[in-house]
Amino acid sequence: MEKQRVSQLQRIVRSKAFTLFVLLAVLILGFGFLSPVIKRGAVFFQANTLKTTLQDLSIPAFLAIGAGCLMVSGSLDFSQARVGAFAGIIVAAGVQWWGLSWYVAVILALALSAGIGLINAILVNELKFQPFIATMAMSSIIYAVMYLAATDKTSQVQSTINFTSPGLSKVISWSVTLGGLELPGTVLLLIVAFIVYGLVLSKTRFGRQLYLLGGNATAARLSGINAKKTSYFLFINCSILSGLAGIIYTGRSNQGSLLALANDQFTGMTAAILGGISFGGGSGGMGGAFLGLLVIKTFSKGLAIINVNTYLTNVLSGALLLAALTLDYFSQRRQMKRIGI
Questions:
Q1: Which is nearest to 200 in space by CA: 294, 77, 73, 285?
Q2: pTM, to two decimals
Q3: Containing H/E element for 184?
Q4: How far apart are CA 186 and CA 293, in angstroms?
Q5: Which of 202, 203, 189, 201 is nearest to 230 (CA)?
């Protein structure tokens, strides 16, 4: 019995989740003690920091979920941020210029996002493009289409489209109070989304199929899994979630922007990799991705509080992505050695 407890404790300590918990604690304590030292008057330990950090999670969270599901299956999508920005432009232009109700504009934006996912899936499955190439090319096309959608009646391209929609603002700003802390409805939505997708991956037959596809595509095909059908679903799902992230951003700021979500281009993937979802597929889960996202946003929030230069923040965020990819590389090498490859 004692040996079993020691073995369980060792597994917990060696797990990626434990490492992320420790890293998150170090970041919180580090910024908590250093923020007033580095910048006079700066305070990290306060309820507003927690609230704004959770608010910041809601946009990249949906990118992380979509990217995570694709990566588990051994694929990826580099067009997520552009899809989100495109959805925001459609909502803003639809309400401000085209006379659409906000809910019609939202439905249209999500439908077009799903269409982009469908095209990505066709490029990958029917034309046999590599996901990296297909989605990067699609990202460029989306950017050009955004310019067309953001062109006003005077043929001028508007980098931002301001609009007013009390209905959409009310939906986006909805919140509940728990234990004296006001939580935005979008935060509750992302928590529910992580739980649902996490359960799908870990407890359902479909989830097991995704892990098998990412771990051994040949074995998956021999076992009767329809890899093409699954790929179509995952690409469409990823684009819809990206569109939802863009709509949340647009609803909060009351403007559609050509540069929306630009800073979150790789946030979803970085969070997924930090959380244990391998770049090569077949491992990881949504719980780890959520922890990875918390680490990234706590890191960014701490840097913002101590007033670190924006460009340096981008450099450090890029370094975090490189660190995540490096850890994933060595993790895959250890796994291959264990199975004798």
A1: 285
A2: 0.89
A3: strand 181-184
A4: 15
A5: 201
